[in-house]
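Reviewers asked in the last cycle whether our approach scales beyond single polypeptides. To address this, we selected a multi-component target totalling 472 residues and predicted its structure end to end. The input consisted of the following lines:
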Amino acid sequence: MGTASTNSTKPAMRDSLIAAAFQLFLERGYEQTTVDDIVTLAGVGRRSFFRYFPSKEDVVFPDHEQCLADMTRFLAASADSDDPVVRVCDAARLVMRMYAENPTFSVQRYRLTRQVAGLRTYELSVVWRYEKTLGDYLRTRWADRRDGTLRANVVAAAVVAAHNHALRHWLRSGGEGDPLAEVDGALEFVRATWATGGQATDAPAEEAEDVVVVITKRSTPMWRVVREVESSLGEG
Amino acid sequence: MGTASTNSTKPAMRDSLIAAAFQLFLERGYEQTTVDDIVTLAGVGRRSFFRYFPSKEDVVFPDHEQCLADMTRFLAASADSDDPVVRVCDAARLVMRMYAENPTFSVQRYRLTRQVAGLRTYELSVVWRYEKTLGDYLRTRWADRRDGTLRANVVAAAVVAAHNHALRHWLRSGGEGDPLAEVDGALEFVRATWATGGQATDAPAEEAEDVVVVITKRSTPMWRVVREVESSLGEG
DNA sequence: GATTCTTCCGGCACCGAGTGCTGTGAAGAC
DNA sequence: GTCTTCACAGCACTCGGTGCCGGAAGAATC
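The resulting structure, written as C-alpha coordinates, was:
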Protein backbone atom coordinates (compact mmCIF):
# COMPACT_ATOMS: atom_id res chain seq x y z
CA MET A 1 0.00 0.00 0.00
CA GLY A 2 2.03 3.03 1.10
CA THR A 3 2.24 5.94 -1.23
CA ALA A 4 2.87 5.56 -4.91
CA SER A 5 6.18 7.33 -4.49
CA THR A 6 8.22 4.15 -4.26
CA ASN A 7 6.68 3.02 -7.49
CA SER A 8 7.44 6.18 -9.45
CA THR A 9 10.74 7.28 -7.93
CA LYS A 10 12.62 4.62 -9.80
CA PRO A 11 12.32 6.21 -13.25
CA ALA A 12 11.32 9.65 -11.96
CA MET A 13 14.61 10.47 -10.27
CA ARG A 14 15.61 12.70 -13.14
CA ASP A 15 12.18 14.29 -13.40
CA SER A 16 11.99 15.00 -9.70
CA LEU A 17 15.35 16.75 -9.91
CA ILE A 18 14.09 18.91 -12.76
CA ALA A 19 10.91 19.74 -10.85
CA ALA A 20 12.79 20.61 -7.67
CA ALA A 21 15.32 22.69 -9.59
CA PHE A 22 12.73 24.78 -11.41
CA GLN A 23 10.66 25.27 -8.29
CA LEU A 24 13.68 26.78 -6.56
CA PHE A 25 14.90 28.67 -9.63
CA LEU A 26 11.55 30.38 -10.04
CA GLU A 27 11.04 31.30 -6.41
CA ARG A 28 14.55 32.46 -5.48
CA GLY A 29 16.54 32.68 -8.73
CA TYR A 30 19.06 30.49 -10.50
CA GLU A 31 22.27 31.77 -8.97
CA GLN A 32 20.74 31.93 -5.51
CA THR A 33 19.97 28.22 -5.71
CA THR A 34 22.77 25.75 -5.00
CA VAL A 35 22.87 22.16 -6.11
CA ASP A 36 22.66 21.21 -2.46
CA ASP A 37 19.34 23.03 -2.23
CA ILE A 38 18.01 21.09 -5.19
CA VAL A 39 19.02 17.66 -3.97
CA THR A 40 17.76 18.45 -0.48
CA LEU A 41 14.35 19.38 -1.85
CA ALA A 42 14.31 16.35 -4.11
CA GLY A 43 15.39 14.16 -1.21
CA VAL A 44 18.32 12.55 -2.99
CA GLY A 45 22.06 12.59 -2.62
CA ARG A 46 24.17 15.31 -4.09
CA ARG A 47 26.17 12.91 -6.20
CA SER A 48 23.03 11.72 -7.95
CA PHE A 49 22.41 15.15 -9.43
CA PHE A 50 25.62 15.05 -11.42
CA ARG A 51 24.84 11.51 -12.50
CA TYR A 52 21.86 12.78 -14.47
CA PHE A 53 23.12 16.26 -15.36
CA PRO A 54 26.76 16.90 -16.12
CA SER A 55 26.43 20.48 -14.93
CA LYS A 56 24.01 22.72 -13.11
CA GLU A 57 23.07 24.40 -16.36
CA ASP A 58 22.02 21.14 -18.00
CA VAL A 59 19.01 20.79 -15.73
CA VAL A 60 17.57 23.91 -17.38
CA PHE A 61 17.71 22.36 -20.85
CA PRO A 62 16.77 18.74 -20.21
CA ASP A 63 15.28 17.95 -23.60
CA HIS A 64 17.75 19.51 -26.05
CA GLU A 65 19.98 16.48 -26.22
CA GLN A 66 17.10 14.38 -27.45
CA CYS A 67 15.99 17.06 -29.88
CA LEU A 68 19.43 17.32 -31.36
CA ALA A 69 19.48 13.57 -31.91
CA ASP A 70 16.08 13.81 -33.60
CA MET A 71 17.35 16.52 -35.93
CA THR A 72 20.42 14.47 -36.82
CA ARG A 73 18.27 11.46 -37.65
CA PHE A 74 15.86 13.60 -39.63
CA LEU A 75 18.64 14.98 -41.79
CA ALA A 76 20.27 11.59 -42.20
CA ALA A 77 16.97 10.30 -43.58
CA SER A 78 16.96 12.87 -46.38
CA ALA A 79 16.66 11.96 -50.01
CA ASP A 80 18.86 13.43 -52.71
CA SER A 81 15.78 14.79 -54.39
CA ASP A 82 15.02 17.03 -51.43
CA ASP A 83 15.94 20.66 -51.69
CA PRO A 84 18.65 21.09 -49.05
CA VAL A 85 17.38 24.49 -47.98
CA VAL A 86 13.84 23.23 -47.56
CA ARG A 87 15.18 20.27 -45.65
CA VAL A 88 17.06 22.32 -43.08
CA CYS A 89 14.04 24.57 -42.68
CA ASP A 90 11.97 21.52 -41.85
CA ALA A 91 14.68 20.42 -39.45
CA ALA A 92 14.41 23.76 -37.69
CA ARG A 93 10.68 23.22 -37.34
CA LEU A 94 11.48 20.16 -35.21
CA VAL A 95 13.10 22.38 -32.62
CA MET A 96 10.16 24.75 -32.56
CA ARG A 97 7.86 21.80 -32.18
CA MET A 98 9.78 20.72 -29.09
CA TYR A 99 9.38 24.17 -27.55
CA ALA A 100 5.70 24.19 -28.44
CA GLU A 101 5.05 20.90 -26.68
CA ASN A 102 5.43 22.51 -23.24
CA PRO A 103 4.55 26.19 -23.65
CA THR A 104 4.53 27.10 -19.97
CA PHE A 105 7.82 25.34 -19.33
CA SER A 106 9.39 27.01 -22.36
CA VAL A 107 8.21 30.44 -21.29
CA GLN A 108 9.47 29.96 -17.73
CA ARG A 109 12.85 28.85 -19.01
CA TYR A 110 12.95 31.81 -21.37
CA ARG A 111 12.45 34.28 -18.55
CA LEU A 112 15.19 32.49 -16.64
CA THR A 113 17.72 32.53 -19.45
CA ARG A 114 17.04 36.19 -20.14
CA GLN A 115 18.09 37.13 -16.62
CA VAL A 116 21.06 34.83 -16.04
CA ALA A 117 24.12 35.43 -18.17
CA GLY A 118 25.51 31.96 -17.55
CA LEU A 119 22.36 30.36 -18.91
CA ARG A 120 22.44 32.55 -22.01
CA THR A 121 25.96 31.38 -22.70
CA TYR A 122 24.96 27.78 -22.23
CA GLU A 123 21.99 28.22 -24.54
CA LEU A 124 24.37 29.65 -27.12
CA SER A 125 26.40 26.47 -27.07
CA VAL A 126 23.23 24.46 -27.57
CA VAL A 127 22.14 26.60 -30.50
CA TRP A 128 25.62 26.30 -31.95
CA ARG A 129 25.28 22.52 -32.02
CA TYR A 130 22.04 22.84 -33.97
CA GLU A 131 23.68 25.23 -36.40
CA LYS A 132 26.65 22.93 -36.80
CA THR A 133 24.36 19.98 -37.52
CA LEU A 134 22.53 21.93 -40.19
CA GLY A 135 25.81 23.19 -41.62
CA ASP A 136 27.32 19.72 -41.80
CA TYR A 137 24.30 18.48 -43.70
CA LEU A 138 24.37 21.36 -46.17
CA ARG A 139 28.11 20.97 -46.62
CA THR A 140 27.78 17.36 -47.73
CA ARG A 141 24.88 18.22 -49.99
CA TRP A 142 26.86 21.04 -51.60
CA ALA A 143 30.21 19.30 -51.66
CA ASP A 144 30.40 19.72 -55.42
CA ARG A 145 29.91 23.47 -55.34
CA ARG A 146 32.88 25.77 -55.35
CA ASP A 147 31.63 27.79 -52.42
CA GLY A 148 29.76 24.93 -50.82
CA THR A 149 31.20 25.48 -47.34
CA LEU A 150 30.61 29.21 -47.28
CA ARG A 151 27.11 28.80 -48.59
CA ALA A 152 26.39 26.05 -46.08
CA ASN A 153 27.61 28.13 -43.15
CA VAL A 154 25.67 31.22 -44.17
CA VAL A 155 22.44 29.38 -44.87
CA ALA A 156 22.67 27.40 -41.64
CA ALA A 157 23.21 30.61 -39.71
CA ALA A 158 20.30 32.27 -41.49
CA VAL A 159 17.98 29.35 -40.73
CA VAL A 160 18.93 29.40 -37.06
CA ALA A 161 18.50 33.17 -36.92
CA ALA A 162 15.07 33.01 -38.52
CA HIS A 163 14.02 30.20 -36.21
CA ASN A 164 15.23 32.05 -33.13
CA HIS A 165 13.47 35.19 -34.31
CA ALA A 166 10.15 33.42 -34.40
CA LEU A 167 10.87 31.48 -31.23
CA ARG A 168 11.78 34.50 -29.14
CA HIS A 169 8.80 36.44 -30.44
CA TRP A 170 6.53 33.61 -29.42
CA LEU A 171 8.20 33.24 -26.02
CA ARG A 172 7.98 36.97 -25.34
CA SER A 173 4.25 36.83 -26.02
CA GLY A 174 3.95 34.32 -23.20
CA GLY A 175 3.20 31.34 -25.41
CA GLU A 176 0.20 32.78 -27.22
CA GLY A 177 -0.51 32.09 -30.86
CA ASP A 178 0.73 29.36 -33.16
CA PRO A 179 4.52 29.06 -32.97
CA LEU A 180 4.71 26.68 -35.90
CA ALA A 181 2.99 29.21 -38.11
CA GLU A 182 5.35 31.92 -36.92
CA VAL A 183 8.45 29.93 -37.63
CA ASP A 184 7.12 29.02 -41.06
CA GLY A 185 6.68 32.67 -41.82
CA ALA A 186 10.20 33.49 -40.73
CA LEU A 187 11.71 30.54 -42.55
CA GLU A 188 9.89 31.58 -45.70
CA PHE A 189 12.19 34.57 -45.76
CA VAL A 190 15.18 32.23 -45.90
CA ARG A 191 13.52 29.86 -48.32
CA ALA A 192 12.67 32.64 -50.72
CA THR A 193 16.25 33.81 -51.00
CA TRP A 194 18.03 30.46 -51.29
CA ALA A 195 15.77 27.54 -52.12
CA THR A 196 16.12 26.30 -55.68
CA GLY A 197 12.37 26.58 -56.03
CA GLY A 198 13.13 30.29 -55.82
CA GLN A 199 15.47 31.73 -58.33
CA ALA A 200 18.79 33.05 -57.11
CA THR A 201 20.62 29.83 -56.29
CA ASP A 202 22.16 28.29 -59.35
CA ALA A 203 23.19 29.60 -62.70
CA PRO A 204 20.08 30.27 -64.76
CA ALA A 205 21.67 28.15 -67.46
CA GLU A 206 21.23 30.69 -70.14
CA GLU A 207 23.32 30.37 -73.21
CA ALA A 208 24.55 33.91 -73.46
CA GLU A 209 28.03 33.46 -74.75
CA ASP A 210 29.36 36.96 -74.36
CA VAL A 211 32.45 37.12 -72.29
CA VAL A 212 33.39 39.87 -69.87
CA VAL A 213 37.04 40.52 -69.21
CA VAL A 214 38.05 42.31 -66.03
CA ILE A 215 41.61 43.28 -65.32
CA THR A 216 42.48 44.28 -61.82
CA LYS A 217 45.23 44.21 -59.25
CA ARG A 218 45.57 41.92 -56.32
CA SER A 219 45.39 44.88 -54.02
CA THR A 220 41.99 45.99 -55.25
CA PRO A 221 39.25 45.37 -52.71
CA MET A 222 36.74 42.77 -53.70
CA TRP A 223 33.80 45.12 -53.70
CA ARG A 224 35.56 47.34 -56.18
CA VAL A 225 36.13 44.40 -58.51
CA VAL A 226 32.50 43.52 -58.23
CA ARG A 227 31.46 47.04 -59.13
CA GLU A 228 33.73 46.88 -62.11
CA VAL A 229 32.16 43.65 -63.28
CA GLU A 230 28.68 45.00 -62.68
CA SER A 231 29.30 48.13 -64.66
CA SER A 232 30.79 46.07 -67.47
CA LEU A 233 27.68 43.96 -67.51
CA GLY A 234 25.47 47.00 -67.41
CA GLU A 235 26.87 48.80 -70.39
CA GLY A 236 27.10 45.69 -72.55
CA MET B 1 70.54 48.65 -8.10
CA GLY B 2 67.64 46.17 -8.24
CA THR B 3 66.43 44.67 -11.46
CA ALA B 4 64.41 46.62 -13.96
CA SER B 5 61.41 44.50 -13.03
CA THR B 6 60.09 47.07 -10.61
CA ASN B 7 60.10 49.57 -13.41
CA SER B 8 58.19 47.47 -15.95
CA THR B 9 55.82 45.53 -13.74
CA LYS B 10 53.78 48.60 -13.04
CA PRO B 11 51.98 48.87 -16.37
CA ALA B 12 52.85 45.38 -17.64
CA MET B 13 51.02 43.46 -14.96
CA ARG B 14 48.21 42.55 -17.30
CA ASP B 15 50.54 41.71 -20.17
CA SER B 16 52.78 39.56 -18.02
CA LEU B 17 49.75 37.61 -16.89
CA ILE B 18 48.72 37.03 -20.51
CA ALA B 19 52.23 35.94 -21.43
CA ALA B 20 52.53 33.58 -18.48
CA ALA B 21 49.10 32.15 -19.15
CA PHE B 22 49.74 31.40 -22.83
CA GLN B 23 53.15 29.94 -22.09
CA LEU B 24 51.57 27.42 -19.75
CA PHE B 25 48.51 26.84 -21.90
CA LEU B 26 50.66 25.96 -24.88
CA GLU B 27 53.08 23.69 -23.06
CA ARG B 28 50.68 21.76 -20.84
CA GLY B 29 47.16 22.62 -21.98
CA TYR B 30 44.43 24.95 -20.79
CA GLU B 31 42.60 22.70 -18.36
CA GLN B 32 45.86 21.35 -16.95
CA THR B 33 46.89 24.89 -16.01
CA THR B 34 45.45 26.36 -12.84
CA VAL B 35 45.23 30.03 -12.06
CA ASP B 36 47.72 29.42 -9.27
CA ASP B 37 50.22 28.17 -11.85
CA ILE B 38 49.80 31.35 -13.87
CA VAL B 39 50.22 33.77 -11.00
CA THR B 40 53.19 31.79 -9.67
CA LEU B 41 54.93 32.03 -13.03
CA ALA B 42 54.06 35.70 -13.34
CA GLY B 43 55.24 36.30 -9.80
CA VAL B 44 52.10 38.06 -8.63
CA GLY B 45 49.35 37.34 -6.17
CA ARG B 46 46.40 35.18 -7.06
CA ARG B 47 43.95 37.95 -6.31
CA SER B 48 45.57 40.21 -8.89
CA PHE B 49 44.67 37.81 -11.70
CA PHE B 50 40.97 38.25 -11.12
CA ARG B 51 41.44 41.98 -10.84
CA TYR B 52 42.46 42.13 -14.50
CA PHE B 53 40.45 39.18 -15.84
CA PRO B 54 37.02 38.40 -14.44
CA SER B 55 37.44 34.74 -15.33
CA LYS B 56 40.12 32.32 -16.42
CA GLU B 57 38.68 32.29 -19.93
CA ASP B 58 39.00 36.05 -20.32
CA VAL B 59 42.79 35.87 -20.41
CA VAL B 60 42.49 33.96 -23.69
CA PHE B 61 40.54 36.78 -25.36
CA PRO B 62 42.17 39.92 -24.01
CA ASP B 63 41.41 42.22 -26.96
CA HIS B 64 37.80 41.47 -27.82
CA GLU B 65 36.34 43.95 -25.40
CA GLN B 66 38.18 46.77 -27.12
CA CYS B 67 37.25 45.48 -30.57
CA LEU B 68 33.59 45.36 -29.65
CA ALA B 69 33.76 48.95 -28.51
CA ASP B 70 35.41 49.89 -31.81
CA MET B 71 32.63 48.21 -33.76
CA THR B 72 29.97 49.98 -31.74
CA ARG B 73 31.60 53.34 -32.38
CA PHE B 74 32.03 52.54 -36.06
CA LEU B 75 28.35 51.76 -36.46
CA ALA B 76 27.30 54.76 -34.43
CA ALA B 77 29.27 56.96 -36.84
CA SER B 78 27.26 55.75 -39.82
CA ALA B 79 25.51 58.10 -42.17
CA ASP B 80 21.97 57.57 -43.39
CA SER B 81 23.26 57.42 -46.93
CA ASP B 82 25.28 54.29 -46.18
CA ASP B 83 23.86 51.00 -47.29
CA PRO B 84 23.21 49.19 -44.00
CA VAL B 85 24.37 45.84 -45.37
CA VAL B 86 27.60 47.32 -46.66
CA ARG B 87 28.07 49.03 -43.34
CA VAL B 88 27.82 45.89 -41.25
CA CYS B 89 30.13 44.11 -43.68
CA ASP B 90 32.71 46.81 -43.11
CA ALA B 91 32.13 46.49 -39.39
CA ALA B 92 32.90 42.79 -39.64
CA ARG B 93 36.14 43.67 -41.40
CA LEU B 94 37.19 45.46 -38.21
CA VAL B 95 37.13 42.19 -36.34
CA MET B 96 39.15 40.43 -39.00
CA ARG B 97 41.63 43.27 -38.90
CA MET B 98 42.10 42.73 -35.18
CA TYR B 99 42.84 39.05 -35.73
CA ALA B 100 45.21 39.92 -38.56
CA GLU B 101 47.24 42.26 -36.38
CA ASN B 102 48.74 39.36 -34.42
CA PRO B 103 48.69 36.33 -36.71
CA THR B 104 50.76 34.02 -34.55
CA PHE B 105 48.80 34.87 -31.44
CA SER B 106 45.52 34.38 -33.28
CA VAL B 107 46.59 31.00 -34.62
CA GLN B 108 47.79 29.82 -31.23
CA ARG B 109 44.52 30.86 -29.66
CA TYR B 110 42.59 29.15 -32.42
CA ARG B 111 44.33 25.84 -31.79
CA LEU B 112 43.54 26.27 -28.11
CA THR B 113 39.87 27.01 -28.57
CA ARG B 114 39.46 24.09 -30.94
CA GLN B 115 40.59 21.66 -28.27
CA VAL B 116 38.92 23.08 -25.17
CA ALA B 117 35.13 22.97 -25.06
CA GLY B 118 34.91 25.64 -22.41
CA LEU B 119 36.83 28.09 -24.55
CA ARG B 120 34.61 27.37 -27.53
CA THR B 121 31.59 28.22 -25.44
CA TYR B 122 33.18 31.41 -24.25
CA GLU B 123 34.08 32.38 -27.80
CA LEU B 124 30.47 31.80 -28.75
CA SER B 125 29.35 34.35 -26.21
CA VAL B 126 31.84 36.83 -27.64
CA VAL B 127 30.66 36.23 -31.18
CA TRP B 128 27.09 36.59 -30.00
CA ARG B 129 27.82 40.09 -28.73
CA TYR B 130 29.18 41.05 -32.14
CA GLU B 131 26.11 39.64 -33.82
CA LYS B 132 23.84 41.47 -31.42
CA THR B 133 25.66 44.73 -32.09
CA LEU B 134 25.24 44.30 -35.83
CA GLY B 135 21.62 43.26 -35.40
CA ASP B 136 20.80 46.26 -33.25
CA TYR B 137 22.24 48.59 -35.86
CA LEU B 138 20.33 46.96 -38.71
CA ARG B 139 17.15 46.97 -36.64
CA THR B 140 17.26 50.71 -36.18
CA ARG B 141 18.11 51.26 -39.82
CA TRP B 142 15.20 49.08 -40.93
CA ALA B 143 12.73 50.22 -38.34
CA ASP B 144 10.35 51.32 -41.06
CA ARG B 145 10.38 48.01 -42.88
CA ARG B 146 7.63 45.54 -42.24
CA ASP B 147 9.97 42.60 -41.54
CA GLY B 148 12.77 44.80 -40.32
CA THR B 149 13.60 42.77 -37.23
CA LEU B 150 13.60 39.44 -39.00
CA ARG B 151 15.69 40.83 -41.81
CA ALA B 152 18.12 42.41 -39.35
CA ASN B 153 18.58 39.18 -37.41
CA VAL B 154 19.08 37.07 -40.51
CA VAL B 155 21.51 39.45 -42.17
CA ALA B 156 23.50 39.91 -38.97
CA ALA B 157 23.77 36.14 -38.59
CA ALA B 158 24.80 35.79 -42.22
CA VAL B 159 27.50 38.43 -41.89
CA VAL B 160 28.90 36.79 -38.79
CA ALA B 161 28.80 33.38 -40.45
CA ALA B 162 30.59 34.65 -43.55
CA HIS B 163 33.18 36.41 -41.44
CA ASN B 164 33.80 33.32 -39.32
CA HIS B 165 34.03 31.21 -42.42
CA ALA B 166 36.87 33.32 -43.79
CA LEU B 167 38.45 33.70 -40.36
CA ARG B 168 38.54 29.99 -39.60
CA HIS B 169 39.83 29.20 -43.06
CA TRP B 170 42.64 31.67 -42.55
CA LEU B 171 43.39 30.39 -39.04
CA ARG B 172 43.45 26.78 -40.21
CA SER B 173 46.01 27.73 -42.84
CA GLY B 174 48.28 28.87 -40.03
CA GLY B 175 47.96 32.58 -40.81
CA GLU B 176 49.09 32.44 -44.44
CA GLY B 177 47.58 34.65 -47.10
CA ASP B 178 45.61 37.86 -46.83
CA PRO B 179 42.77 37.49 -44.34
CA LEU B 180 41.21 40.81 -45.33
CA ALA B 181 40.88 39.64 -48.91
CA GLU B 182 39.38 36.38 -47.75
CA VAL B 183 36.77 38.04 -45.62
CA ASP B 184 35.93 40.42 -48.42
CA GLY B 185 35.28 37.49 -50.70
CA ALA B 186 33.06 35.79 -48.17
CA LEU B 187 31.20 38.98 -47.32
CA GLU B 188 30.60 39.60 -50.98
CA PHE B 189 28.37 36.55 -50.88
CA VAL B 190 26.25 38.34 -48.29
CA ARG B 191 26.45 41.71 -49.99
CA ALA B 192 25.40 40.31 -53.32
CA THR B 193 22.21 38.83 -51.89
CA TRP B 194 21.08 41.73 -49.71
CA ALA B 195 22.83 45.00 -50.45
CA THR B 196 20.68 47.53 -52.24
CA GLY B 197 23.48 48.63 -54.53
CA GLY B 198 25.34 51.13 -52.42
CA GLN B 199 29.09 51.19 -52.34
CA ALA B 200 31.66 50.40 -49.75
CA THR B 201 32.99 53.13 -47.55
CA ASP B 202 36.72 52.97 -47.35
CA ALA B 203 39.49 51.50 -49.44
CA PRO B 204 42.06 49.46 -47.50
CA ALA B 205 44.83 50.80 -49.74
CA GLU B 206 47.16 47.85 -49.65
CA GLU B 207 50.15 47.45 -51.87
CA ALA B 208 50.64 44.67 -54.42
CA GLU B 209 51.45 45.06 -58.04
CA ASP B 210 50.38 41.82 -59.70
CA VAL B 211 47.50 41.97 -62.09
CA VAL B 212 44.66 39.50 -62.14
CA VAL B 213 42.59 38.87 -65.23
CA VAL B 214 39.08 37.65 -64.74
CA ILE B 215 37.19 36.19 -67.65
CA THR B 216 33.59 35.31 -67.15
CA LYS B 217 30.23 35.11 -68.85
CA ARG B 218 27.37 37.47 -68.37
CA SER B 219 25.21 34.65 -67.09
CA THR B 220 27.51 33.79 -64.23
CA PRO B 221 26.15 34.88 -60.87
CA MET B 222 28.13 37.55 -59.16
CA TRP B 223 29.06 35.47 -56.14
CA ARG B 224 30.59 32.90 -58.43
CA VAL B 225 32.72 35.55 -60.09
CA VAL B 226 33.90 36.69 -56.71
CA ARG B 227 34.72 33.17 -55.72
CA GLU B 228 36.72 32.77 -58.88
CA VAL B 229 38.68 35.91 -58.28
CA GLU B 230 39.30 34.91 -54.68
CA SER B 231 40.65 31.50 -55.59
CA SER B 232 42.84 33.06 -58.23
CA LEU B 233 44.27 35.38 -55.65
CA GLY B 234 44.76 32.54 -53.24
CA GLU B 235 46.78 30.30 -55.51
CA GLY B 236 48.89 33.14 -56.83
C1' DG C 1 59.51 67.04 5.77
C1' DA C 2 55.63 64.83 8.13
C1' DT C 3 50.82 64.14 7.43
C1' DT C 4 46.72 61.91 5.47
C1' DC C 5 44.21 59.95 1.61
C1' DT C 6 44.12 57.20 -2.28
C1' DT C 7 45.35 53.34 -4.93
C1' DC C 8 47.12 49.08 -5.95
C1' DC C 9 48.65 44.62 -4.45
C1' DG C 10 49.04 40.23 -1.51
C1' DG C 11 47.17 37.02 1.53
C1' DC C 12 43.97 35.04 3.72
C1' DA C 13 39.14 32.63 4.45
C1' DC C 14 35.29 31.21 2.29
C1' DC C 15 31.59 29.48 -1.09
C1' DG C 16 30.01 26.55 -4.67
C1' DA C 17 30.55 23.57 -8.82
C1' DG C 18 32.30 19.32 -10.23
C1' DT C 19 34.99 14.63 -9.65
C1' DG C 20 36.86 10.23 -7.74
C1' DC C 21 36.35 6.84 -4.56
C1' DT C 22 34.10 3.72 -1.18
C1' DG C 23 30.49 1.41 1.14
C1' DT C 24 25.85 -0.29 1.00
C1' DG C 25 21.49 -2.07 -0.09
C1' DA C 26 18.23 -3.78 -3.24
C1' DA C 27 17.10 -6.11 -7.44
C1' DG C 28 18.05 -9.76 -10.55
C1' DA C 29 20.74 -14.38 -12.35
C1' DC C 30 22.11 -18.96 -11.34
C1' DG D 1 20.11 -20.02 -1.02
C1' DT D 2 24.34 -17.17 -2.76
C1' DC D 3 26.63 -14.16 -6.15
C1' DT D 4 26.64 -10.39 -9.21
C1' DT D 5 25.30 -6.05 -10.64
C1' DC D 6 23.75 -1.55 -10.43
C1' DA D 7 22.18 2.64 -8.50
C1' DC D 8 22.55 5.55 -4.73
C1' DA D 9 24.58 8.16 -0.60
C1' DG D 10 28.30 10.05 1.54
C1' DC D 11 32.93 11.71 1.92
C1' DA D 12 37.04 14.04 0.61
C1' DC D 13 39.25 16.79 -2.62
C1' DT D 14 40.39 20.19 -6.51
C1' DC D 15 39.72 24.46 -8.54
C1' DG D 16 37.39 28.75 -10.08
C1' DG D 17 35.77 32.87 -8.13
C1' DT D 18 34.67 36.52 -4.25
C1' DG D 19 34.84 39.37 0.06
C1' DC D 20 37.60 41.21 3.28
C1' DC D 21 41.46 43.15 5.44
C1' DG D 22 46.17 44.81 6.03
C1' DG D 23 50.20 46.81 4.10
C1' DA D 24 53.11 49.36 0.85
C1' DA D 25 53.83 52.78 -2.37
C1' DG D 26 52.57 57.59 -4.20
C1' DA D 27 50.45 61.94 -4.58
C1' DA D 28 48.34 65.88 -2.38
C1' DT D 29 47.94 68.98 1.60
C1' DC D 30 49.71 71.74 5.33
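Residues 61-203 of chain B form a domain with the Tetracycline Repressor; domain 2 fold (CATH 1.10.357.10). We regard this as preliminary and will revisit it once experimental data from Aim 1 are available.
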